[in-house]
Structures are given as structure tokens and as C-alpha cells.
Design goal:
Blueprint (H helix, E strand, L loop, with lengths): L14 H9 L4 H11 L2 E2 H8 L4 H13 L3 E6 L5 E6 L1 H4 L2 H13 L3
Antiparallel strand pairs: 1-3, 2-3
Length: about 110
């Protein structure tokens, strides 16, 4: 029998909380889903695909995902600048979770 008491627990110390801290944000999961579906994506392609996201919000979200080592940013030294984004190995490890969320959404739409 489990004798855990909520008053002695701390949500911030759970794996759930850590995972949520990485993917939390209005567009982060959408960005990860986009990279999961299309592989390598350029900034403007992602902006067009997502739609209602500002350039600044997309840029900040991409920088945060890169800092958390979930996505890789590859910059090409050319004019005009060319930057491509893709999932890292760590980011790809989230694919089963994203797949399950997609499946759940497909099965539970009202």
C-alpha cells in the first residue's frame, strides 16, 4: 500500500514537471510537431506553416528549444542568410509522446 502524502511531495521534482518545462509555451509543441513531420525546415517555412505566430515569438521559441538541446540550428554562410532547423536526437526522443498526443486528439475530438 502506498502511504504517500501530497503535503510531503513537490511537483517541481518530478519528471513530468521537467518535461513540461521544456515543451511549455504556446508554440513549442507546434514547432516540435512541425519538425517531426517535415524533418528540416527553414524559418520562413515554419512561420507560414504555423500561421498566427509573430517573427519574434517564433525566434524566441526556437532559441529556447535550441538551448534545451531539442532542436538543431544550422546556419549557412551565404547571402541571403539561410538557416535550417531540425530535431536533435534528444528532440526525436519526444516523438512517441507527440505521436500519442496526436492519436489522442484524433480519437477524442468533440
Amino acid at each position: 500500500m502506498n502511504n504517500r502524502c501530497i503535503s510531503q511531495e513537490n511537483l517541481n521534482e518530478t519528471g513530468f514537471s521537467y518535461t513540461l518545462s521544456l515543451i511549455n509555451g504556446k508554440y513549442k509543441m507546434t514547432i516540435l510537431y512541425t519538425l517531426m513531420e517535415f524533418g528540416v525546415v527553414r524559418f520562413n517555412e515554419m512561420k507560414r506553416y504555423i500561421g498566427n505566430i509573430s517573427y519574434k515569438t517564433l525566434s524566441v521559441s526556437l532559441k529556447e528549444l535550441e538551448a534545451d538541446k531539442l532542436i538543431h540550428r544550422k546556419e549557412y554562410p551565404q547571402i541571403p542568410p539561410k538557416v535550417e532547423y531540425s530535431l536533435t536526437k534528444r528532440g526525436k526522443s519526444l516523438i512517441p509522446i507527440l505521436d500519442m498526443m496526436c492519436e489522442w486528439g484524433d480519437n477524442n475530438r468533440i
